[in-house]
Automatic annotation (TrEMBL), chain A:
<dbReference type="InterPro" id="IPR050555">
    <property type="entry name" value="Bact_Solute-Bind_Prot2"/>
</dbReference>
<feature type="domain" description="Periplasmic binding protein">
    <location>
        <begin position="56"/>
        <end position="298"/>
    </location>
</feature>
<dbReference type="InterPro" id="IPR028082">
    <property type="entry name" value="Peripla_BP_I"/>
</dbReference>
<protein>
    <submittedName>
        <fullName>Sugar ABC transporter substrate-binding protein</fullName>
    </submittedName>
</protein>
<dbReference type="InterPro" id="IPR025997">
    <property type="entry name" value="SBP_2_dom"/>
</dbReference>
<feature type="signal peptide">
    <location>
        <begin position="1"/>
        <end position="24"/>
    </location>
</feature>
<dbReference type="Pfam" id="PF13407">
    <property type="entry name" value="Peripla_BP_4"/>
</dbReference>
<keyword id="KW-0732">Signal</keyword>
<comment type="similarity">
    <text>Belongs to the bacterial solute-binding protein 2 family.</text>
</comment>
TrEMBL record, chain B:
<dbReference type="Pfam" id="PF02653">
    <property type="entry name" value="BPD_transp_2"/>
</dbReference>
<feature type="transmembrane region" description="Helical">
    <location>
        <begin position="186"/>
        <end position="207"/>
    </location>
</feature>
<feature type="transmembrane region" description="Helical">
    <location>
        <begin position="104"/>
        <end position="124"/>
    </location>
</feature>
<feature type="transmembrane region" description="Helical">
    <location>
        <begin position="317"/>
        <end position="336"/>
    </location>
</feature>
<keyword id="KW-0812">Transmembrane</keyword>
<feature type="transmembrane region" description="Helical">
    <location>
        <begin position="131"/>
        <end position="151"/>
    </location>
</feature>
<feature type="transmembrane region" description="Helical">
    <location>
        <begin position="55"/>
        <end position="73"/>
    </location>
</feature>
<feature type="transmembrane region" description="Helical">
    <location>
        <begin position="239"/>
        <end position="260"/>
    </location>
</feature>
<dbReference type="InterPro" id="IPR001851">
    <property type="entry name" value="ABC_transp_permease"/>
</dbReference>
Length: 336, 344
């Protein structure tokens, strides 16, 4: 036991030394201090005096998805403003997602926001909610099924239309041969984006599947693709975290290809500004969450409906170097 | 008692051929040559120097972790938490530096301590509870996955870390963990050097030190090893801390190479490390294997995953090709080993 106690003492001493060093070894650039310095206090008080309704949001997000995190942030901020009790749950398995919607119905919530990535699996439960008198708004995926299932409105980006915008933009930039990098094999939305881009792109476009949970392998796969085919002059990634990796791969492969991406984050903003990235397509996830909650509130309060039975599109918005500088502040705080 | 036979083999005078046939990595080497020849024939760009550097990079990121995982398997255990531990290590250094506005190196050191503590926890729980390593490390795997997400969300408000690229100490830390050199058309990544160094150190430990004998003895039969005075507990905890140390190195590479870490990454990579070790000749039952073998296994993995891209095959079938190639390489490896053992 004596040895164990010495071990504890050694670990304690090392920890103390490190903490001491962390106080002494402060970084004068970047970090949390810089963020706090830049950020003014944001108040989250309700702006209305309507009753405290409960709205549930159930999405098909996987664990740790950056995109859905922003959607959730938008929904939360709208809920705070509208005096809403906001409940969020998510699961990438359709069956579990349907179960969560059922739970919301059981709790007799005052409104449900749901994403229809796998519409068939959620059809029954969405119709059940509507039958029980709970207003439903669909977000992000499922624009085609939304009205048929009885939802008030669909808020989101049509993946095919977003892809088409990218294809047109690539053509405008004089690109000849593009690679569409899919980081999740079997994701319908990803396939639609690439297919949409292929449709309007004047050049040739190929798909490349990569292992999204393993960044070094993403880099190696893109690098390999560029080495195998030096005529590739554009790489399109479908998520913001993969764009800087594609830039690295392009540099390592000695390629001149332009890297473009879907979605924004602060690395993408930085790379857009520096010119390392050509453009980014934003579908404004914050707006999807915010509008869904706000429209449910409007419906409850004033029986308002938006869109007239057609999807309300939140994208695509093409962001280039000029807009990136303007948006950077919002990207940094995590709402773009 | 493979420890005793290993010692005997080294003492007995044997011909070079016979000694080669007795090496665990022989099958893997034959498999690697087969995969290499195959892709050289079907993919025109595979043999280019720049392509080889891509393959080496890809192999090294798996290989750095395959080394301690192979040692652990020789010691008779495995670690399902190895994949997410890499992400944990990257998250800890990034978030500690950012939140404390500390020099990046401070975060790197804190991360080393935290990661080693996780490795110690795995080994300690295993030896204390006597539960199978499958259960213990599955528990750690799930806990770390949750902690990665929960802590990142709690601390940074989003599911990925903030960029620390503008902070002090970043350039020097990047030089150590993520630098690269251009040598003509070839880009050499520092991970390849880390990988080679780790293989060399592990091989030295396994074949030339007392600790190496302990590892083989513990994997061959823990009770028998304990009876002859091998410190079984210490050896096992040491092996788990070895995995943690390498997870730290890989984690720092990911952080300094990509500046931002996503909390959901790393899940599933533990299988790649185990696959590399198994292709490299480690037995699932312990007591047999080598560090060099794990390196050859990682190299096969690098060649296969990138070779498919060089060959420009229809990407819809990517995962199928990958699985089939790995299975074939492992089967070939098993077959060669059987022939080698039969000829002894």
């Amino acid at each position: 036991m004596a040895r164990v106690r010495t071990g504890v003492r050694v670990v304690g001493a090392v920890l103390a030394a490190v903490l001491g060093a962390s106080l002494a070894g402060c970084s004068s650039t970047g970090g949390k201090r810089a963020e706090e310095r830049a950020k003014a206090a944001e108040a989250g008080r309700p702006a209305v005096s309507t009753p405290r309704w409960t709205f549930a949001m159930v999405t098909h997000a996987g664990d740790g998805d950056t995109f859905w995190d922003i959607v959730q942030k938008g929904a939360k901020e709208a809920a705070a403003k509208d005096n809403i009790n906001f409940v969020y749950s998510h699961d990438d398995q359709a069956q579990q997602q349907a179960q969560f919607v059922q739970n919301a119905i059981d709790q007799k919530v005052d409104g449900i926001v749901v994403s229809l990535a796998k519409p068939e699996a959620l059809k029954d439960v969405v119709q059940k909610a509507v039958k029980a008198g709970i207003p439903v708004i669909t977000v992000n995926s499922g624009s085609a099924q939304s009205a048929a299932y009885g939802a008030l409105t669909h808020i989101g980006q049509d993946e095919t239309i977003a892809g088409e915008a990218v294809g047109t933009e690539l053509g405008k930039r004089g690109r000849k041969k593009a690679v569409c990098v899919l980081h999740e094999q079997g994701n319908v939305g990803h396939e639609q984006r690439c297919a949409g881009a292929k449709k309007t792109f004047s050049g040739e476009m190929e798909n490349l599947y990569v292992e999204g949970t393993n960044m070094p392998s993403v880099q190696a796969a893109i690098q390999a693709k560029l080495q195998a085919d030096p005529s590739v002059d554009a790489i399109l990634t479908l998520g913001a975290p993969f764009a800087p990796t594609a830039v690295k791969a392009k540099e390592a492969a000695g390629s001149k290809a332009e890297v473009d991406t879907f979605d924004l984050n602060d690395s993408v903003a930085r790379d857009l500004k520096s010119g390392a990235l050509g453009f980014a397509v934003d579908q404004q996830p914050y707006l999807q969450g915010y509008e869904a909650i706000d429209l449910l509130w409007l419906y409850r309060y004033n029986a308002d409906v938006l869109g007239g039975g057609r999807p309300v599109l939140t994208g695509p918005q093409i962001v280039t170097a000029a807009e990136a500088a303007e948006l950077e502040e919002y990207i940094k705080r995590g709402s773009r | 008692m493979s420890a005793a036979t290993a010692v005997d083999e080294r003492l007995a005078p044997a011909s070079l051929v016979r000694r080669l046939l007795g090496r665990p990595e022989l099958g893997a080497v034959v498999g690697a040559v087969a995969v290499f020849v195959f892709f050289s024939l079907v993919a025109p760009t595979f043999l280019q120097a720049s392509s080889l550097s891509t393959i080496l990079y890809s192999a090294s990121t798996i290989g750095i972790m395959a080394v301690p995982v192979a040692m652990l398997m020789i010691g008779g255990e495995f670690d399902l938490s190895a994949g997410v531990m890499v992400t944990t290590s990257a998250l800890v250094s990034s978030m500690f530096s950012y939140q404390m506005t500390a020099d990046v190196w401070v975060g790197v050191l804190v991360s080393l301590l935290v990661t080693l503590a996780i490795g110690f926890f795995n080994g300690f729980m295993l030896t204390r509870t006597k539960l199978p390593s499958f259960i213990i490390t599955l528990g750690t795997f799930l806990m770390l996955t949750g902690l990665n997400l929960g802590f990142t969300k709690l601390i940074s408000g989003t599911v990925s870390t903030k960029s620390i690229a503008d902070m002090e100490g970043f350039p020097s830390a990047r030089a150590l963990f993520a630098s690269k050199w251009e040598i003509g058309p070839v880009t050499l990544q520092i991970t390849v050097l880390w990988w080679l160094a780790l293989v060399a150190v592990a091989t030295w430990i396994l074949l030339r030190t007392r600790a190496g004998n302990w590892i083989f003895a513990v994997g061959g039969g823990a009770d028998a090893a304990r009876a002859v005075g091998v410190p079984v507990v210490k050896t096992r905890i040491g092996l788990y801390m070895g995995v943690a140390l390498c997870a730290w190195i890989s984690g720092q590479h990911i952080l300094f190479s990509f500046d931002v870490v996503q909390s959901g990454e790393g899940v599933g990579n533990e299988f790649l490390y185990i696959i590399a070790a198994v292709i490299g000749g480690c037995l699932m039952t312990g007591g047999y294997g080598s560090a060099i073998g794990s390196a050859v296994g990682a190299f096969i993995f690098g060649m296969t995953s990138n070779g498919i891209v060089y060959a420009q095959w229809n990407p819809d079938w990517f995962k199928f090709f990958l699985g089939a190639m790995l299975l074939l390489a492992t089967l070939l490896n098993a077959w060669v080993r059987k022939r080698a053992e039969a000829s002894k």
